[in-house]
Amino acid sequence: MPFPNVRLANRPLHFIYICDCSGSMAAQGKIQALNQAIRQSLPGMAAVARQNPEARVLVRAVSFADRAAWHLEEPTEVERLQWLDLQAGGITAMGEALELVAAVLRSPPMEERALPPVLVLISDGQPTDDFDAGLASLMRQPWAQKAVRLAIAMGHDADTDVLQQFIGSDPCGGLPSGEIPGASGKTPLHRSGRSPRRPLQASNATSLAQYIQWASTAVVGAASMPASRMAGLGPQANIPLPDLPPTLMDPTDDVGPLVW
Amino acid sequence: MTWILPEGASLDLEGISSPLRVLRGLGGGTQGQVFEVEVAGERLALKWYLPACIARDPHLKRRLGESIRATAPSEAFLWPLALVTPGPGALPLLRLGEPGFGYLMELRPPGFLGAHEHVGGHLDIGLLQVLRACFFLAEGFHALHLKGLCYKDISLGNLFLEPSSGRILICDNDNVDVDGRDLGSVLGTPGFMAPEILMGIARPGANSDLFSLAVLIFRLLTRHDPLRGRRELEIRCLDEPARRRLYGEDPLFIFDPTNPSNRPDPIEHAAALITWPIYPEPIKRLFEQTFCAGLHAPQRRALTGQWMAALAEALDQRQLCGHCGQETFPAASDPGPLCWSCGCPIPPPTRLRLPHGQVTAAAGNELHPHHFDRLLPLRLDQPLARVEAHPSDGSLLGLRNLSGQAWQAELRAGNRVVVVESGQACNLAPLVRLTTQAGAVELPT
After folding, report:
1. Are B143 and B204 in contact (CB under 8 A)?
2. Which of residues 350-379 of B touch A (CB under 8 A)?
3. Contact flag B157-A51 (C-beta cutoff 8 Å)
4. What is the ipTM of this complex?
């Protein structure tokens, strides 16, 4: 006889991509790289969602150029998600994009109970509209304050100050570059010298794909049903962030940067 | 995924005598990556650590070496077999700035799926198999603890099961340590960690394993969490501080017999309310022991051997409801049991009387050596006999001889004795007694 037809009670986990689609993203295959990176990350995200029966992972996406708009408006279960390619062209209405996100993080339409949302902002430039007003509007929402906010800078023209404001202050900001608190207090945890509380710098297609994969698997896992906890980690936020993807020396990636 | 070790490469590694060929990457996480490899014609799994993981856990290599020398506590563990480090020829092939190390283990056999598939309701599995899986889990940790070791990170993610049999595999054995020595960095997985570990007032060991084991058994049996009842519903955003309150600062078992303030909600937590009544009292008492008094007194938590005894006994009294066919577990002492599923009365079953205990005659139930000799350890993996329905008449129950020797069967009528060869099944209805090599099986007159 089958086990009784009951399911573990679960909560929604809202995952929202906020993607820069300004004209500069059309150069050097950046928008193609972004589309590929997101598409490639979906099977891993679906696998993580299935491994965490207490979460119901729902994905949405906002794109911003001259205006901000929902690219994927309906919160969609990752298993059913088909990624439609983003197109580049226009300026950088990042503030407006944050307003759109703020509007859906109100209760309602947010459920009364959920897991901390995950917001991933990906940009290669500077906002051309009122970013501060957009951010202020977002941060008035309690669900945004509770959210895991990540930012990925595509190339070196991205305004990392703005991205850092989106994430919030870096608790490791006072440490020398390349060090965040490790088990011993001396050894840097991330040999890559980055902290997940700073904007992640994606200088080529491989690192972009790795960061998006990390955000959609390790971070989703941590926000839905946390992984093993290690002793000696520093102060934790709402959701302790997992290690960043390692810096791999990939001999197949020596054709030079695709994105900068 | 970018793999640390190049697929297809042949690596010269120290720690094994033959070269190792990387066949394909199997998966990766924040600790490292796992590969399918071939060594001397044998397919194995190789886990290779990331530098950040090695930096965070300075005694990892020593623990792994000791585990390999100690050998696996039981077949339920996918245990490390050999520690490997890169030889000079392998170093340039590693896609990492540092050499690092890894370990070899058996590949997970096909048919074993992540236990989360069951908890998520994706598996075709029965109560019999789930109870057996819980028994094997308790048995595995029994063997581990008896070796003086502890696991430290029992969770849903480290358990795999075979739905058809209930057999299990316990993975990720690299945190195993000598109990009380604490040469590790892991604290456990939230939701499975004992309150004293979560609150930072103790370090993980065998006693906190007992808490995590009880949580995992509870989740397998109920598809619910033992501490998430009405208190959880008051939490809007289930984040780290909220989890700390629920699991560490002020935990309360949802079925605490004296404090009903955290009972499951009938709509949100229906799984717990539907499944809890299925299980016999001795199992419920072990949960109460661990999640009430044992929440704050680690030495009062149910022991692995107690879990094994209660789960084996539940399997012995398993009975199929004559009305809805669902599996039920009425105790012999229960005067008027009702089916938990359809509510119909369950008639008294035929019980096979053995030198040590009774087993209900229901298809799928098994007789084990411990039923005949109380000095033998409780084991479910070497049954001597299994109750089976007749292939064309499901109302006829027989007992199949799974032992290597013939039995003598005494019939009710005419004092006749027939021989039941190994592999044969005999109809239970006309029998009064079966004499086996292990002892006698008596049927009610």
Report:
1. no
2. none
3. yes
4. 0.87
